[in-house]
Amino acid sequence: MTMSDDTRSIESRPPAGPVLIGVTNAVLSNTGDAAIFEAITVSLRRAFGDTCQIVAFDSNASVTSRLYPEWEIHQQLSVSPPREPARLRNVLQRVRHRLVRLLTDDRRASRLLAAPLVRRSRFARAYRRFEELDVVVSSGGTYLVDHYNFEARVLELRLADVLGKRVILWTQSMGPFESSRAVSQIERIGAVTDAVFFRDDRSARAWSRRVRGSDAEAREVPDAVFALTAPTPTASTAAVEPARRALLSVREWSRGVDASSFDTAAYAASMRSAGALLSSSGWDVRALSTCQGVPSYAYDDSAEAARIFAGVDVDVDREFHSPGGLLSELSSTGLVVTTRMHLAILSLISRVPVIAIAYEFKTLELFANLGLSDFVVKIEDVTPEWMTERIQMLLDEPGRARLSHERLAQLRAEADSPAGHLRRLLQQ
């Protein structure tokens, strides 16, 4: 740790007033990530009641503040918002990194933010709010992995430690940390972390193998989104026959994913076969994703859906949908085929049968833990034949890919547990 144990124990005591919790590493333009933030908020409110206030630090705050005006959102300190040209963003990113390093190494540097030309800047406002936090939560996700440079995450969490904040890693998928850069970065995060919660055993093993000597609480829990509950069907939604409406989620591969390791044509053909089979069987079929309708976000899955489903009777939805909006859509849906993991989770908590295509290990681990391995396939292995077979299985027996009410209640309680741990931590 950067600070002594004695200093941290004093500065980490619960404040006299409400607890102020900051959730950083948020990417709220992605509705799956927004669902994670909403779920963390729900869990914290169940644990703390009205005695906590929650603030998001997002990668593109100016956009997401408009999408979610009900949330308090600031720009993430170590991440420059997307802008054109890319070269300018890279320059500003380096400036932010240097500022965060300076603030971490020398607390007196914060006086610079009071300068007339700086004090009203987005960075200065976000930093002042960051200083006020009692806890910094690193949002759930899959960003602590080898193929990402997560130095920005390291910088912000080290700053939180220097400022005397408790640091919590919420429902992470991570590892395996094979590169020297990744090993160094995760070791530095481990040194400032009070508690870490994993979405799967593979991630827990990666942490324990690379982070030695940490006294952080480390535990495996379900994805944060399992803390959410599906809305009770209304008279209007109940009147819709769910067995005749399907949602298909695809994603594009131009950025962020190595498409050289699998046959993208087979993937596209498999999704196209799903759409053709369902539409020819009399279903209302729509392409819908957690990543669409936000022009500044890196991904627009609706564009890929339009390409894949050209000539197939599938309606391509291009609008932005909030987590609540997706849950509402799912309330009148009878089947989901998805490449996006959080659409799978939202389907599961809505008790909608779901078939998943896994482009990262997180989805495979999720379905294995739930006993649903028959209904997930690695993207490298998907074929139209596999897809047709699984769809037919669920048409004949939809309950095979549906979780019971009892299992969902158990998952909800387990997903809430990091909030309970945080409350106990602040009481120490």
The CATH topology of the largest domain turns out to be: Rossmann fold
Q: What characteristic shape results from the CA principal axes?
A: globular
H-E order: HEHEHEHHEEHEHEHEHEHEHEHEHEHEHH
How would a textbook summarize the main sheet?
8 strands, parallel
Gyration radius over CA = 22 Å
Which spans of ≥5 residues are poorly predicted at pLDDT below 50?
A: 1-15
Briefly, what is this?
With 428 residues, the chain is of the alpha/beta class.
What does this structure look like?
With 428 residues, the chain is an alpha/beta fold. The chain folds into 2 domains: 5-220, Rossmann fold (3-Layer(aba) Sandwich); 235-408, Glycogen Phosphorylase B (Rossmann fold, 3-Layer(aba) Sandwich), CATH 3.40.50. The protein contains 16 helices and 14 strands. It has helices at residues 5-11, 31-48, 61-67, 86-105, 122-132, 151-162, 180-190, 201-210, 235-238, 264-280, 301-308, 323-330, 341-349, 361-369, 384-396, 405-426; strands at 19-26, 52-58, 73-75, 135-138, 141-144, 166-174, 195-198, 217-220, 245-249, 284-287, 315-316, 335-338, 354-358, 376-378. Strands 1, 2, 3, 4, 5, 6, 7 and 8 form an 8-stranded parallel β-sheet that branches. Strands 11-10-9-12-13-14 form a 6-stranded parallel β-sheet, sandwiched between helices. Helix 2 (31-48) crosses helix 16 and helix 4 (86-105) runs parallel beside helix 6. The longest helix has 22 residues, at 405-426. The model is unreliable at 1-15 (pLDDT under 50).
